[in-house]
Amino acid sequence: MSNCKVIAMCNQKGGVTKTTTTANLGIGLAMEGKNVLLVDNDPQADLTTALGWPDSDSLPMTLSDIMEKTVNDEDFDHYGAILRHKEGVDLIPSSIELSGMEMNLVSAMSREFTLKNYLDKINHEYDYIIIDCPPSLSMLTINALAAADSVIVPVQAQYLPAKGMTQLMKTINKVRKQINPALKVDGVLLTLADMRTNLARATADTLRQQYGGMLKIYKTQIPVAVKAAETSTAGQSIFAYDKGGKAAQAYAEFTKEVLADGQRAKTKPAPGR
After folding, report:
1. CA dist 87 → 25, 196, 236, 246, 249 (Å)
2. What does the alpha-carbon distance between residue 253 and residue 239 come to, in Å, rounded to a whole number?
3. Superfamily name and number for 5-262
4. How far, CA to CA in Å, does 36 sit from each of 69, 128, 238?
5. Where are the domains of the chain?
6. pTM
7. β pairing state of 90-92 and 36-40
8. Pairing of strands 83-84, 217-223
9. For residue 64, what are the CA distances in angstroms to 26, 31, 36, 67, 136?
């Protein structure tokens, strides 16, 4: 049985730094000595672009090809699409063709488990697999939730999408009941946070009041940082692009929180002991 932890980075609202967080958490974990695979599960291919492959449509194999071959039960090289980033993480890239693949999943047998069926064949190679989800509660997102052990929810500090959070939690609970009983929410990460503003402070307070009793709210808050936004054009993590900056420090602290959660889960006594 694999000890790999699969995390879905999920929020149906766009612009909350899901992709930036996926990349920087993954590379942060790699810097801590972990074997990490990042999966770009979004047809927009922002994660693929952010890690240095802007022309994803020209790549010989992407997640769309993997899912198609998995659905059709074809033999293929399970490692054929994996790209190696210079900062020590592996990447399964995406392309616009993934949007067409999503339509094909509608009529596929065991459609919710297509991504899981593939990842189960390679997860023994990794300590962590992090899936960057599209900004929608689509079949691609359902596939990620079916494959995941847990979910991290980035939420923008400038605007609290309470209704969107409620819908996301309903979807996660539905997946837990019908598809993946072991799925849990690791926590909510406050991003794009300028805590000097009343709005950001009010958002943080409201988030803790409304969801703090049900969900973990990470202590780390990712600040607004121009350098963090620039990393996608550089094909680098924030650690390589602006090592001493506030965003890099925040992502390093967030990485430590995620690692600590993993250690607590491993040392938690089994039921009945």
Report:
1. 12, 33, 8, 20, 17
2. 12
3. P-loop containing nucleotide triphosphate hydrolases (3.40.50.300)
4. 23, 5, 17
5. 5-262
6. 0.93
7. parallel
8. unpaired
9. 22, 29, 20, 5, 18
Residue ranges with strand state E in the chain = 5-9, 36-40, 83-84, 90-92, 128-132, 150-156, 184-193, 217-223
Tens of pLDDT along the chain (273 residues)?
679 999 999 988 787 889 999 999 999 999 999 999 999 999 999 999 999 999 998 999 999 999 999 999 999 999 999 999 999 999 999 999 999 988 888 777 788 999 999 999 999 999 999 999 998 888 999 999 999 999 999 988 776 665 677 788 889 999 999 999 999 999 999 888 777 788 778 878 877 887 788 889 999 999 988 888 888 888 999 999 999 999 999 999 999 999 998 776 666 554 443
Q: Which two tokens stand for residue 186?
A: 């690791």
- Please provide the DSSP assignment of 96-110 as one string: THHHHHHHHHTTSTT
Residue 168: partners with Cβ closer than 8 Å, 6 or more residues away: 10, 11, 12, 137, 153
